[in-house]
Amino acid sequence: MTAPIHIDDPADPRLADYRELRERDLAGRDGFIAEGQVVLEKLVRGGRHPLRSVLVAEKRLAGLADLLAELPGDVPVYAAGQAAMDAVVGFPIHRGILASGERRSLDAETLLANLPGRALVVGLVGIANHDNMGGLFRNAAAFGADAVLLDDTCCDPLYRKAIRVSVGAALTMPFAAAGSATELTRKLAEAGFSMIALSPQGERDLADFDPPARTAALFGAEGPGLPQAVLRGLSSVRIPMAGGFDSLNVATSSGIVLHHLRRRAPA
Question: pTM for this one?
Answer without folding.
Answer: 0.91
